[in-house]
Design brief:
The protein is mainly α and about 150 residues long. The protein has 5 helices and no strands.
């Protein structure tokens, strides 16, 4: 695989990973959760549905975080040469990466089973909304950096 194909594949996988995580979270927060809460299901049925969705979503979250870390690292490494001495790029990219790891943490905590994060899951609607806001900031920074391009 030549360099162009590798870099293109990495960028496409990175964008798709972000779409899956962000879109899945939007779906769960604003469509599935309210519909499940409004449904006339028994408590056992609610718990069964919640566990089945969580189990599958947990797997997707783990895989997509891995994809985003790997492709993000490669994409950043590739861009370093183009942005040598570009302090705004590096500052914003640093903020983007830090926020992305916060998003990964909350996505994992919300989808996971660790008892240490039970309070996050208990207030899941709030924390998912916060996480979606943070993810929106990550996407906005990425969009700005892409549109801004390489200063001459």
């Amino acid at each position: 695989m030549d360099n162009l194909a590798l870099l293109t594949s990495s960028r496409v996988l990175h964008v798709l990973g972000a779409i899956v995580l962000f879109g899945g979270a939007v779906f769960i927060r604003y469509l599935l959760s309210p519909a499940a809460a409004a449904a006339t299901l028994s408590e056992d049925q609610h718990e069964s549905l919640k566990e089945q969705v969580s189990r599958r979503w947990r797997q997707v979250v783990g895989i997509m975080i891995g994809v985003l870390i790997l492709t993000g690292g490669l994409n950043f490494y590739r861009a370093l040469g183009d942005h040598k001495g570009d302090s705004l790029y590096h500052a914003l990219m640093g903020i983007k990466i830090l926020l992305a790891f916060v998003v990964f943490f909350y996505a994992s905590a919300l989808a996971g089973r660790a008892k240490a994060f039970a309070n996050i899951r208990k207030n899941g609607q709030f924390w998912m909304t916060v996480n979606l806001a943070l993810a929106t900031i990550v996407v906005a920074i990425a969009g700005f950096l892409k549109v801004r391009g390489v200063p001459h």
